[in-house]
C-alpha cells in the first residue's frame, strides 16, 4: 500500500486538470483550426485559446503563439478578456504557479460579475486551477475546500453536465491520494451515474474509468480495477493516435503491479513510453520510469533500477516538486544500501535528511503563521467588542450634550463649508496650472525627441547615400578596372595572390553596400514596412537560430517616419535577442488595429534580470524607449530562465 501511494503522490500533480481534451484529438484540433480561419472573431478567439491549452505541455512556443493570436480578437469584450486571463493561467500553470494564480484571480473577479452559464463554467474552471496552484502552500484540505465550496456549486446549479461529472472524479483523485478510498469511490460513482447515462463516449467518462481503476489498485483489489480498465479500453481503442493512450497504459501498469505480474507491467510501461515520447509528456514519462525502477528493484536488478532513478533526477521534470525529489533521494539511499554501496547510501540519506528538514521547517513556519493569524483575528475581535462597549457608553453621554452644541455646530459647519469651497477652488486652479505646465513640458520633450530622431534618420540617409553612390561607386569602378587589366596582363594560375586581393576588394564592396542598406533599408523605401521587416528577419536568421515572423493587417499607407521608427524598434529588439539571449527560436508578431500597432517578440533564451531596465546605461535600450515614447506607446517586458517576452503597443495616428 505505502509503495503504491508514493507513486500516486508523484502522479497527482499531472492528473489534476480542469479541462479534458476529447479522445478524437485529430478531429478536435482540425475543427479548431478551421474555426480560426472561417468563424467570427469571438469564435476565433475561443478556438485559439483552446489550441493554446491543447499544446501547453507539448509545445510551449506554439501554445504561446495561439494564446497571443486569440488575444488579438478580444477587443472590448469582458467575457473574452476573462477567458484570456484563464488560459494565460493555464499556460503558466506548470511554469510559474504564482503568475498563474494571479491570472486565475483576475478571471474569477471578472467572471463573477457576469452571471451566465458560460461565465459560471469558466469561473468553476478558474477556481479549480487556482486551488491546484495553492496545493503546495496550503495543502490538500484547501484544494478539497475549493472544489467542494467554489467549483462544484457553480456548475451543479445547471444540472448533471459532463463538467459536473468530471469535477466529481477529480475530487475522487484527491481523496484517493489521502487514502480515503471509500469517499473517493462514492464520488467516482456519482460521476459514473452522470457520464454513463448522458455522455457515454466522452473523454470525461474515460478518465473516470481510469480513476476508478486506480482507486481499486491502491486498495489491492485488482479484479475490481480490471472491470473499469476494460471499459476504458473500449473507449480508447478507436483512437490509437490519441495522447490519452499514455494514461490508459499507466492504469494497466498499476493493475499488473497490483497483481504482481512484473513482466506484463514492464510491457505496459514500454507501450506507455511510446506515447509519452510522441506527445512530449515528460512528467508522465518519468512516472513510467519510476514504476520501472520499482519493478526492477523488486526483481533485484539493482544496477538497472539505480540507473533509472538517476536518469529521473537528471531529466528533472518529476523532481521540480520537492516532495518528489525527497522520495527519490530516500529510494536511492535504500537501494545503494541494498547493493552494499555504503558511501553512496550515506550521501543520498544526507541529501534526503537535509531536504526533509527544510520542508519540515517550512511546514512548521506555515502552521505558525496560520496559528498566529487566528490568534490575531481573535484578539482583534476582543478589542472590537471592548471598543464597542466603550463607544455605547460614550454615545449615551454625548447625546446629553448634543442639544447644547447644535447651534454652535451649525455655525462652524457653514464656516467650514466656505473654507472647503475656497480650498477646492484653489486646488482646482492649481491643478489646471500644473496640467498646463506638464503639457508644455511634454510637448517640448516630444519635440526634442522628434528633432533628435529626425536628425538621426537624415544623417543615416546622407551617410548611406554617400557610401552607396560615392565611395561604393568608386570602389566598384576600381574593381572593374582591375578585373579588365588583369584579364589581359595576368595569368589566373600564376598570379593567385592578386586574384585573392581582388576577391577581398569585391567582398569589401559588398560589405559597404550592406552597411548602406542597414543605415537606410531600400526595401522599406521601395516596398513598405511588412517587406522590410520580413527581410530583416531573414538577415538575422542563422543555422542555429529560427526567426518566425508573423504580420497581421499591416497597412501600407503608414507615414514614412512612423514606418522608419517601427523598423528601428524591431531592429533593436532582434539585435538584443541575437546578442544577449543565446536563443534558438524567436517569435516576432506585428499587427495593426486601426490606429494601434502591436509588436510582440518572444525568445527561448536565458532571460535577463529586469532590474537592468533601471540601472543599465545601454544606448540601445535608451533609443528603444525614446522611439516608443515618441510614438506615444507603452512597453511591457517579461523575462525568466525560460526566455523573454516583450509587448509593445504604439500609436500611429500622427505626431
From TrEMBL:
<dbReference type="InterPro" id="IPR005467">
    <property type="entry name" value="His_kinase_dom"/>
</dbReference>
<protein>
    <recommendedName>
        <fullName>histidine kinase</fullName>
        <ecNumber>2.7.13.3</ecNumber>
    </recommendedName>
</protein>
<keyword id="KW-0732">Signal</keyword>
<keyword id="KW-0472">Membrane</keyword>
<keyword id="KW-0067">ATP-binding</keyword>
<feature type="coiled-coil region">
    <location>
        <begin position="361"/>
        <end position="388"/>
    </location>
</feature>
<keyword id="KW-0597">Phosphoprotein</keyword>
<feature type="domain" description="Histidine kinase">
    <location>
        <begin position="462"/>
        <end position="654"/>
    </location>
</feature>
<keyword id="KW-0808">Transferase</keyword>
<dbReference type="GO" id="GO:0005524">
    <property type="term" value="F:ATP binding"/>
</dbReference>
<keyword id="KW-0812">Transmembrane</keyword>
<dbReference type="GO" id="GO:0000155">
    <property type="term" value="F:phosphorelay sensor kinase activity"/>
</dbReference>
<keyword id="KW-0175">Coiled coil</keyword>
<dbReference type="InterPro" id="IPR011990">
    <property type="entry name" value="TPR-like_helical_dom_sf"/>
</dbReference>
<keyword id="KW-0418">Kinase</keyword>
<dbReference type="Pfam" id="PF07730">
    <property type="entry name" value="HisKA_3"/>
</dbReference>
<feature type="transmembrane region" description="Helical">
    <location>
        <begin position="404"/>
        <end position="426"/>
    </location>
</feature>
<dbReference type="InterPro" id="IPR003594">
    <property type="entry name" value="HATPase_dom"/>
</dbReference>
<dbReference type="InterPro" id="IPR050482">
    <property type="entry name" value="Sensor_HK_TwoCompSys"/>
</dbReference>
<dbReference type="InterPro" id="IPR036890">
    <property type="entry name" value="HATPase_C_sf"/>
</dbReference>
<keyword id="KW-0902">Two-component regulatory system</keyword>
<dbReference type="GO" id="GO:0046983">
    <property type="term" value="F:protein dimerization activity"/>
</dbReference>
<keyword id="KW-0547">Nucleotide-binding</keyword>
<dbReference type="InterPro" id="IPR011712">
    <property type="entry name" value="Sig_transdc_His_kin_sub3_dim/P"/>
</dbReference>
<dbReference type="Pfam" id="PF02518">
    <property type="entry name" value="HATPase_c"/>
</dbReference>
<feature type="signal peptide">
    <location>
        <begin position="1"/>
        <end position="18"/>
    </location>
</feature>
<keyword id="KW-1133">Transmembrane helix</keyword>
<dbReference type="GO" id="GO:0016020">
    <property type="term" value="C:membrane"/>
</dbReference>
